[in-house]
């Protein structure tokens, strides 16, 4: 390959060390177009960061089917045991900006793109099976509460806890975040979850409700607050470094994909709303069923090209896998593509990391940065008499029965948001509970007393011992105001 330097237009660059000036001491000449081009490109190198999950790491790999689940889903990627599908996975933290330290107490993103022969399937999940809320109208508020204070430009524990404690449905996720699992030691040492309820459709066009679990095969490892502080003091990129180096040395991380499957009709009679993102489906009701193994085995050659420009969206589903009535999921079907049209442009699906690996044809044309030939001279309308790009009715989903009056239904009043945090708390050993109390008390440091009290009250609604433990830890750390 030629090592000769050229301009973006391919012309030879004669001097990349000295700008053109009028004489050895004179001012610069505007005709030094190489210098102008270099500056102009430099000024535009930063693109908007993701509104959340801005700091992340990614890698390519393979998904291999190990068990037959064709009775539940006709998705081509599950069609045969042993079948392999290429994947790209991006991990992230949520609240920090692009330069934030990796080892923060925060939820971790776990976003997988499966490049199937029927299009891309994205699972845009987290390392927790539940979320802070179940109504998408509250999502922008969450981000304003956990990001920076508008005046101080500091992260505000007061805003953070004020918001969380006013949402009773957040306690389950807050309990996980404050537990010993709140700071994963690395991206390789945590589980991943699709979190929402999705649907499977089989060849007989029967629908099932499904939850996706990626079970970590490296073993779960976490950091204490103290350990995380020490890690951050010497390395803000600890998770990126760990993932990159383990793949470089051939130590490929793996996750076992498992599903919980609920027959469609069960949803109506199940003891709670199975589309509520703040709740898990207990395994004794819907046991885990093995599907396959996901392995990461190739680092991207260029971080910006593949990781920064990656665009995941829950809207990317393939025949045999689909959505559910979960309103959070429904909102996300719009949010991601919309954010990416702003962050990357309307043709972001052409960027190699995002492009399907199967042929794709639509009537979309033009738009900024169209770089695939724009379908050349082929017609851009339908119906047409040329037989081009016909819809595929055989992939229509079975109808889904819906009912109800249109209103802003309040789901808080009559719902139980405490029994699942209670069950989680009661599963913990005494030592794990103490860690939960101490982490919570440290995180509540500096938060005004009425908000601390509100959290203690919420915890006590789950279990008296939970509330009392947090109170005692606050007192002993002298962080109770
Ligand atoms: C990133 C919106 C809930 C996981 C993002 C982005 C937006 C967004 C706009 C940035 C997308 C981009 O620029 O590429 C929302 C909305 C939500 C929601 C509106 C609720 C209504 C969730 C939930 C999960 C989740 C429940 C996990 C279960 C992620 C992940 C990323 C992300 C992993 C980063 C994806 C990547 O690595 O590129 N979200 N989100 N989000 N979100 Fe959400």
TrEMBL record:
<dbReference type="InterPro" id="IPR011614">
    <property type="entry name" value="Catalase_core"/>
</dbReference>
<dbReference type="InterPro" id="IPR040333">
    <property type="entry name" value="Catalase_3"/>
</dbReference>
<feature type="domain" description="Catalase core">
    <location>
        <begin position="6"/>
        <end position="390"/>
    </location>
</feature>
<dbReference type="GO" id="GO:0042744">
    <property type="term" value="P:hydrogen peroxide catabolic process"/>
</dbReference>
<dbReference type="GO" id="GO:0020037">
    <property type="term" value="F:heme binding"/>
</dbReference>
<dbReference type="InterPro" id="IPR010582">
    <property type="entry name" value="Catalase_immune_responsive"/>
</dbReference>
<keyword id="KW-0560">Oxidoreductase</keyword>
<dbReference type="GO" id="GO:0042542">
    <property type="term" value="P:response to hydrogen peroxide"/>
</dbReference>
<dbReference type="GO" id="GO:0004096">
    <property type="term" value="F:catalase activity"/>
</dbReference>
<dbReference type="InterPro" id="IPR018028">
    <property type="entry name" value="Catalase"/>
</dbReference>
<dbReference type="GO" id="GO:0005737">
    <property type="term" value="C:cytoplasm"/>
</dbReference>
<keyword id="KW-0349">Heme</keyword>
<comment type="subunit">
    <text>Homodimer.</text>
</comment>
<keyword id="KW-0575">Peroxidase</keyword>
<comment type="function">
    <text>Decomposes hydrogen peroxide into water and oxygen; serves to protect cells from the toxic effects of hydrogen peroxide.</text>
</comment>
<dbReference type="Pfam" id="PF06628">
    <property type="entry name" value="Catalase-rel"/>
</dbReference>
<feature type="active site">
    <location>
        <position position="53"/>
    </location>
</feature>
<comment type="similarity">
    <text>Belongs to the catalase family.</text>
</comment>
<feature type="active site">
    <location>
        <position position="126"/>
    </location>
</feature>
<dbReference type="InterPro" id="IPR020835">
    <property type="entry name" value="Catalase_sf"/>
</dbReference>
<dbReference type="InterPro" id="IPR002226">
    <property type="entry name" value="Catalase_haem_BS"/>
</dbReference>
<keyword id="KW-0408">Iron</keyword>
<dbReference type="Pfam" id="PF00199">
    <property type="entry name" value="Catalase"/>
</dbReference>
<keyword id="KW-0376">Hydrogen peroxide</keyword>
<feature type="binding site" description="axial binding residue">
    <location>
        <position position="336"/>
    </location>
    <ligand>
        <name>heme</name>
    </ligand>
</feature>
<dbReference type="InterPro" id="IPR024711">
    <property type="entry name" value="Catalase_clade1/3"/>
</dbReference>
<keyword id="KW-0479">Metal-binding</keyword>
<protein>
    <recommendedName>
        <fullName>Catalase</fullName>
        <ecNumber>1.11.1.6</ecNumber>
    </recommendedName>
</protein>
<dbReference type="InterPro" id="IPR024708">
    <property type="entry name" value="Catalase_AS"/>
</dbReference>
<feature type="region of interest" description="Disordered">
    <location>
        <begin position="371"/>
        <end position="392"/>
    </location>
</feature>
<dbReference type="GO" id="GO:0046872">
    <property type="term" value="F:metal ion binding"/>
</dbReference>
